[in-house]
Amino acid sequence: MAQKPSIPKGTRDFSPVEMVKRNYIFDTIKEVFRIYGYQSIETPAMENLSTLMGKYGEEGDKLLFKILNSGDFISKVRDEQLKERNSVKLTTKISEKGLRYDLTVPFARYVVQHRNDITFPFKRYQIQPVWRADRPQKGRYREFYQCDVDVIGSNSLLNEVELIQVVDEVYRRLNINVVVKMNNRKILAGIAETIGEADRMIDITVAIDKLDKIGLDKVNEELLAKGIAEDAVEKLQPILHLEGTNEEKLNKIQEVISSSEVGQKGIEEMRTVFTYLSSLNVQTEVELDLTLARGLNYYTGAIFEVKAKDVEIGSITGGGRYDDLTGIFGLKDVSGVGISFGADRIYDVMLQLDLFPKESITSTKALFINFGEKEMNYCLPILAELRKNGIYSEIFPDSVKMKKQMNYANKKNIPFVILAGDNEIQENKVTLKDMNSGEQQLVDVVELIKILSK
Fold it and tell me: What's the pLDDT tens digit per position in 231-246?
């Protein structure tokens, strides 16, 4: 008995109807990226583990999918190493490559490797799948697409402002009601310094980044479990509860971390960004959220997270400023900032809220009915003319019962069918049938193209 086929948990197949919707999202995002001057690149699905490891923090490293070396990968491992059953040590012996975890680290590698061929500041976008060995759940997948946009080689905060404009434009076009949450890692460093735990910033940020997922009590438990002093955790509480307008929050936190130079720098950067935004017609709400940390270790300045207001789901876009990500590959002091749109979560939001325009469901615009050899030969040049004019069209390949051909059109949501029998051929015309209204009209090729081009 043949084994029933399946796919790995956390991955999905996409039908033609689903792909039309997904491509609607990709095309919308690409168009906005291009409007703002970003250019497309692609990088390999797999990278050397030396490129990936140590860039995402300890928790991120655990979520990397490793690829076994080709050939007899176990032959080079000594028996005593196998008996140790130390997976970390063993991995270095049997695996040299891994599937990319995100698009940012491969982008940094790309910039360093091709630095003599690109012009700085370098504005790139990249839309490709990434993989994470995470526990699959609603809105969280092991294979998913990211739509990244970054500018590298510039320290200007205008880049942060432009990325917020990109977010605003994308979500207005997709008709998703969102809020942009912002913070600054320098402010978080200032908070860590102020509560007496300057050298524990990563532990603090990793913990408070889970605030929305696990709640304040669990965050506090995790902080204590990581060795953060009890009085430091106590000092952190009022900061995690700060409320008010962006200006009021900045004023309050400025007082709290007044002794921290790096923290004051972060506050100054946020004020600059909000000042620029105040003069622009950005319709999306932008909120300063001092509990936003984003767990990735390479962020050094502004950090972003975008959430849909009308659906309970995690962030659908996120990113931030990284001052020296390329430094780990030998190119020092090249600052960049970028954000990533999570296409799969955006898809889920749009599906749940029924936001896909009905016309995006249609791929083929018109179907030629196949009555036989003579009629097919008459229709083929007309079909070629429609395609030349950019009209998605096809002909049913077999001369079968008309009911079967019409059912095919209905199941594929094809809005028009084109019929040509003896009468139409004699008049050098076709009959165009609207599948929604049932109306039919006799038209020539010029009229046909005009109607279907609308």
Answer: 887 877 877 778 899 9
Is this model's pTM higher than 0.85 or not?
no
Q: In Å, what is the CA distance from 200 to each residue of 193, 207, 208, 221, 267?
A: 9, 11, 12, 15, 20
Determine the average pLDDT of the residues in 375-392. Answer: 96
DSSP label of 441: E
Of all helices (H) and strands (E), which one includes residue 306?
strand 302-308
**Gap between the Cα atoms of 130 and 124, Å rounded:** 17
Looking at the fold, whether 103 and 206 belong to one and the same domain comes out as no
293-318: average pLDDT: 88
298: closest CA among 47, 125, 123, 109? 109
DSSP line for 419-431: E--HHHHHHT-EE
Contacts of 216 (CB under 8 A, 6+ apart): 240
Q: φ, ψ for residue 284 (rounded to 5)? A: -75, 140
Phi and psi, residue 93, nearest 5°: -90, -30
Q: CA angle at residue 128 from 124 to 130, to 5 degrees?
A: 120
Q: Decide: 281 and 172 in contact? Cβ < 8 Å.
A: no
User: What DSSP character marks residue 125?
Assistant: E
End-to-end CA distance of the chain: 53
**Do 345 and 395 have their domain in common?**
no
- Provide the number of structural domains found in the chain: 3
Q: How far is the CA of 99 from the CAs of 156, 232, 237, 443, in angstroms?
A: 32, 39, 39, 55
Please calculate the CA angle 19-25-26 and round it to the nearest 5 degrees.
85
Residues 264 and 188 in one domain: yes
**Residue owning tokens 């876009």:** 317
Structural domain boundaries enclosing 106: 9-177+313-361
Q: Are residues 243 and 368 in the same domain?
A: no
Q: Are 144 and 227 in a shared domain?
A: no
State the average pLDDT over residues 28-55. Answer: 94
d(CA 204, CA 220) in angstroms, rounded, equals: 10
179 pairs with which residues across the strands?
A: 285, 307
Residue 77, pLDDT score: 67
Structure tokens, 246: 């962006």
Close Cβ partners of 448 (under 8 Å, ≥ 6 residues apart): 382, 386, 418, 430, 432
